[in-house]
Design a protein that fits this description.
Number of domains: 2
Largest sheet: 3 strands, antiparallel
Strand content: under 5%
Strand order of the largest sheet: 1-3-2
Order of helices and strands: HEHHEEHHHHHH
Structural class: mainly alpha
Radius of gyration: 18 Å
CATH superfamily of the largest domain: GntR ligand-binding domain-like
Number of strands: 3
Shape: globular
């Protein structure tokens, strides 16, 4: 489907933990945020060509801001910039996803360990509040892209809150990039069979362990949580889509 013809369900899903973000009102920043969100949500599919003219017709933000946004997304490995061939959404593969999740689990362990060691009562309150909002958000049935995007945004905020007190800007940078790519893969599971899983109970168990300051249990629960997601996505990637 031509990019200018597809209906957009854009909803920002990531709140940067880094300071010094670009002006959210600039055309380049708006183009970047819209493209980024639609790549992460799967509205722009892996391997899809990203023609500036089509995207300008879709977003009405101008060719230069869109080209600048594509270059920026290229530095995040969400877009591939090819000489004389333009840009396209980065492809996906089971092998890359396995490597991604292995790395994500390692970084998650470091972030959680430091957050539990350094986090104060304000951090605890932020994590509790993030899970409260997520729990009160209806689970998506994956037929409504807006509802799905809303749940995914609150889900991301809960996971980001858990690691936010780790005290390392570099760890948070790595975590955010890995979470972005994980989120893009997680959307693939919607094409395959959905697993029977009580995600809310998994999140609550992680929070309870955090509040007990049980570092070992928190890391074990998060590791299991991420592995369950990995299994579900790998199944979706290898299961033929029914016609």
């Amino acid at each position: 489907m031509n990019a200018s013809m597809r209906v957009s369900t854009y909803m920002p899903t990531n709140e940067s933990v880094l300071s010094g973000a670009a002006d959210p009102g600039s055309r380049t920043e708006r183009a970047y945020q819209r493209l980024r969100a639609e790549i992460l949500q799967g509205a722009l599919a892996p391997g899809e060509r990203l023609r500036a003219a089509d995207l300008d017709a879709r977003y009405d933000l101008g060719l230069t801001p869109i080209r600048e946004a594509l270059v920026r997304l290229g530095t995040e490995d969400l877009v591939l910039m090819e000489s004389n061939r333009g840009a396209r959404v980065r492809e996906t593969s089971p092998e890359e996803f396995a490597d991604l999740m292995k790395t994500r689990r390692e970084i998650e362990r470091l972030c959680l360990a430091e957050a539990i060691r350094l986090g104060d009562s304000k951090w605890e309150a932020e994590v509790i509040a993030a899970l409260h909002v997520l729990t009160r958000t209806p689970l998506p049935d994956f037929t409504d892209p807006v509802l799905t995007a809303k749940w995914e945004a609150h889900h991301r905020r809960f996971h980001a809150a858990l690691v936010s007190a780790c005290g390392s800007e570099w760890l948070l940078r790595f975590w955010n990039q890995l979470a972005d790519h994980s989120e893009r893969y997680r959307m693939i599971r919607l094409k395959g069979p959905l697993e029977a899983r009580n995600v809310q109970a998994e999140h609550q168990a992680i929070l309870d362990a955090v509040l007990r300051r049980d570092m070992e249990e928190t890391i074990a629960l998060m590791d299991a949580h991420l592995r369950e997601t990995e299994v579900a996505v790998q199944l979706a990637m290898t299961t033929p889509v029914q016609a």
